[in-house]
Amino acid sequence: MWLSRFVKSLPLFHPQVQGEAAPPLCEAPLKAVRMLGVERLADARTRAEHALDGARRCSCCRGLLAHLYDRLGSTLFLDDDPEQLARAFEDDERDRFTPRVLAACIVLAGRARVAPAV
Predict the structure, then answer these.
(1) Residues 6 or more apart from 87 whose CB is under 8 A from it?
(2) How far apart, in whole angstroms, are the C-alpha atoms of residue 97 and residue 15?
(3) How far apart are CA 60 and CA 98, in angstroms?
(4) What is the longest distance spanned by two Cα atoms in the chain?
């Protein structure tokens, strides 16, 4: 089964080092984290791995993951809105689980948004 480069690059395939600190979480929980049903980014990682495991078995979600780079670009940010990102996909490429799969990708591969220094 072919997996996109994005899915292979996720920490799901390269587990986090045990002592590695999670990125800091701002005061309000991130939408991607809340969508996975938890309040903390560290807790969301396990749920994200589970969501992506299920996504690999779904033909619609496999297509979504295969076209992720084409539709969204190569960088996801922790504060991205999964429901907004889902709108970048055609109707036949998404279903009601698309935002949750995107939330899992954000939690596992997203990075903090940093303002450029002037």
Answers:
(1) none
(2) 24
(3) 9
(4) 46
Torsion of CA 114, 12, 62, 30, to 10 degrees: -40
Contact 51, 105 (CB under 8 A): no
Question: CA nearest 55: which of 43, 65, 45, 47?
Answer: 65
User: In angstroms, rounded to a whole number, what is the distance separating the alpha carbons of residues 46 and 74?
Assistant: 23
The tens place of each residue's pLDDT in the chain, 118 residues long, gives 444 555 555 554 444 445 445 445 444 479 999 999 999 999 999 999 999 999 999 888 888 999 898 999 989 999 999 999 999 998 888 899 999 999 999 999 999 988 887 7
Query: Residue 77: helix, strand or coil by DSSP?
Result: strand
